[in-house]
Amino acid sequence: MAKPKFGDRARTFIDDYTRDLTARDLQRVFTRETRAMVSFFTQGTQQADVTQKDLLRHPFRNARQFFLAFAMRLTAARRMLYAGAAVLFVIGLIDGLTPDPGEPLWDTGIVKLLVAFGLIHLILLLEVADRLTLKHELNVARDIQRAMLPAGTLTVGTIEAHGETQPANTVGGDFFDILPRVDGQVLVILGDVAGKGTPAALLMALFLAMTRTLLDEALPPAVLALRLNEQLMRHSPRSRFITAFIALFDPRTNEMRYVNAGQNPPMVRRVSGRLEWLPPTGMALGLSRKATYEENTLTLGPGDLLLAYSDGITEAESPAGVAFEDEGLRVLADQMGGLSAGLVARRVIDEVKAHTDDSVLFDDLTVLVCRRLDTEAPPPIPMADGSNNDER
């Protein structure tokens, strides 16, 4: 077999190196990602609220503050290596710009520049290794978090319920739950933990555990909200709270009793196409021990559906900065007639992602759909893989 030519090997290397690269990704590095990076490293500094205009107005002062903000986030040893590399770079640059004809080549500043280059790359490799280790751990946490949420569509009597979530980061603070009770009623919950990422995911797991522990007590939504609020006040940081929509559906009467604890108003689409919105009936959970929650009742007719969603849905922005808002849901509502709960949930997520044009999400996307069937559904037929064929 003939040995590949140098040009072919170079072309293969370039293709591998630039795989999945798009012009938009490259542009994002110098726009959105750079702004996010500056915001991250300047948190807690004097220039945290400084605009880009001010950054250019005082470049040396801001460069010094940014250098310190970045360096102080490194470990002590890496911080010293970084300082040493910076000093060597400056000295090497001065030596290179003011050469002495009598000094040897290795003492013209080139060696100092090469050492500085090596130290910077050593720090880079160490930081990347830490990041990849953390990324692996977060991927495991993501799998655990997904396993905690119900999969597929649950059908009980005349109601079918389905949830979908898309975290902005590897793990997120949005959640939903669909819990059949021993008395035949179905408890559905959609919630949003303040914040994003790992802290929100941990509080989300705590909330789900508390909810499932209280399930056997068969509490009405208002009492359940009070109990959950009390537990959050005891066990969560004061800076964290949870907005939640808690509803209890009775397949025998087709009534849904609900509490909206500071969550975005869920949308009810009647089979006629008329839309209703369910405003909050109490404050977010975990804010005050004096919180009270009012319980309202809703009746779902055949073909009616309820769509609960997190604020990431309505606040998702297009590349031009236009939010999806409630108007986007109103447009989608015209396309929901006759669709199953699962198809509605996935369509909402897909439409929001299309609206953002696959840009980086700044908040989690979560929807929970409950749909009243025309007639009571038969028991789901087990599939060969163990799942239920209950998707319509």
Number of strands: 11
| Domain tally | 2
Q: Count of helical segments?
A: 12
Overall geometric form? elongated
CATH superfamily membership of the largest domain:
PPM-type phosphatase domain
Helix and strand run: HHHHHHHEEEEHHEEEEEEHHHE
- Report the major sheet: 6 strands, antiparallel
What does the secondary structure layout of this molecule look like, with pairings?
Blueprint: H1 6-17, H2 23-30, H3 32-41, H4 52-57, H5 59-71, H6 76-97, H7 110-148, E1 154-156, E2 159-166, E3 174-180, E4 186-193, H8 197-214, H9 221-235, E5 242-250, E6 255-261, E7 267-269, E8 275-277, E9 296-299, E10 305-309, H10 311-315, H11 325-333, H12 341-355, E11 365-372
Antiparallel strand pairs: 1-2, 2-11, 3-4, 4-5, 5-6, 6-9, 7-8, 7-10, 10-11
Task: Describe the overall structure.
Helix 2 runs parallel beside helix 3 and helix 8 packs across helix 9. By secondary structure, the chain is of the alpha+beta class. 44% of the residues lie in helices and 17% in strands. About 2% of the residues have low confidence. The strands form 2 sheets. It has a 6-stranded antiparallel β-sheet.
Task: Summarize the model shown.
By secondary structure, the chain is of the alpha+beta class. It has twelve helices and eleven strands.
Annotation keywords:
single chain, 392 residues, alpha+beta, Phosphatase 2c, domain 1, 2 domains, 6-stranded antiparallel beta sheet, 11 strands, 44% helix, 17% strand, elongated, transmembrane, Phosphoserine phosphatase RsbU, phosphatase activity, hydrolase, EC 3.1.3.3
